[in-house]
Write a structure and sequence with these properties.
This protein has 297 residues and is of the alpha+beta class. The protein is built from seven helices and 16 strands. A hairpin with a 3-residue loop joins β14 and β15 (259-266). The chain is globular.
């Protein structure tokens, strides 16, 4: 499949309250967000014409903006509607949606109280991050070089662009070595998350996952915890040391893009994608489509 640059596509992007042609949705080279990382965003998926957990995503976008000390100049309801309108304008019913809010080029410098807050929303077709066969084989993860920061040094609960710098470095390094992604530790040395997905482990039928004191509280993560409890599975949220990975039999990662994807390897530790991983993967797939069908009905 040929690569199509994201700045050279047909279509429309919602930007600051109106639709502009895709290729014309631009910002200046002195945009504050480009220089200082003052940008927050969301990643959302539409299934069968409905955006899964749209309100939760939009509310998190607003919380992230507040953590970066700026206010989005629209209401939550207006951004919800703009996301729906963007998909409709593109004629998409199964796609990925990217809302982003950022400080503009009106003022440059570390402090920019007079900069305007811009908001844009784009949507495009995006199939499953990994195909079904790859999922059940399990993906391979390397260990990341960098660690998730102490929340006293960065707003780690925000889905902020600047926090993804170490994720980009880590994932690209892993891919060069033949891995699908990288697993990050937190600043204390506990298992944290992959570069764009939360992680779960299974041992003796019990599901274990790290707490959100240093990682993003993923909406897919929250959903999978609910699905596991619906199956009467015990879910233990706790700090996990890297050496404990030798004791777990199954592992999977969760995220809007990854959905629920089993893991076969994290560095020197091996896992066998099994029945519980597959069950939760199938539960999630049914849920996102069932909710879409329910709303449509």
């Amino acid at each position: 499949m040929s690569f199509v640059p994201f700045d050279d596509r047909d279509g429309w992007i919602w930007m600051n309250g109106e639709f502009v042609p895709w290729r014309e949705a631009k910002t200046h080279v002195l945009t504050h967000a480009l220089h200082y990382g003052s940008s927050v965003f969301e990643g959302e998926r539409m299934y069968n014409g409905e955006i899964f957990k749209l309100r939760e995503h939009t509310e998190r976008l607003f919380r992230s903006a507040e953590m970066l000390d700026f206010q989005i100049p629209y209401s939550v309801a207006e951004i919800d509607q703009a996301c729906k309108d963007t998909c409709a304008r593109a004629g998409l019913t199964d796609c990925y949606i990217r809302p982003v809010a950022f400080r503009g080029a009106e003022q440059i410098g570390v402090s920019a109280p007079n900069s305007k807050i811009h908001v844009a929303i784009a949507a495009w077709e995006w199939p499953s991050y990994f195909d079904a066969a790859t999922k059940m084989k399990g993906i391979r993860l390397a260990w990341a070089k960098y660690r998730r920061p102490d929340p006293l040094t960065a707003p780690s609960a925000a889905k902020a662009a600047g926090l993804y710098m170490i994720c980009t470095i880590s994932k690209m390094a892993a891919e060069r070595e033949g891995y699908a992604d990288a697993m990050m530790l937190d600043w204390r040395g506990y298992v944290a998350e992959a570069t764009g997905a939360n992680v779960f482990f299974i041992k003796d039928g019990v599901v274990h996952t790290p707490p959100v004191d240093a990682i993003l509280d993923g909406i897919t993560r929250q959903t999978v915890i609910e699905l596991a409890k619906a199956r009467c599975l015990e879910v233990v949220v706790r700090h996990i040391r890297p050496e404990e990975l030798a004791d777990f039999t199954e592992c999977f990662v969760t995220g809007t893009a990854a959905e629920v994807t089993p893991v076969a390897e994290i560095g020197e530790y091996k896992f066998t994608p099994g029945a519980l991983s597959k069950a939760l993967m199938d539960d999630y797939s049914r849920l996102v489509r069932r909710e879409a069908q329910s709303v449509a009905a």
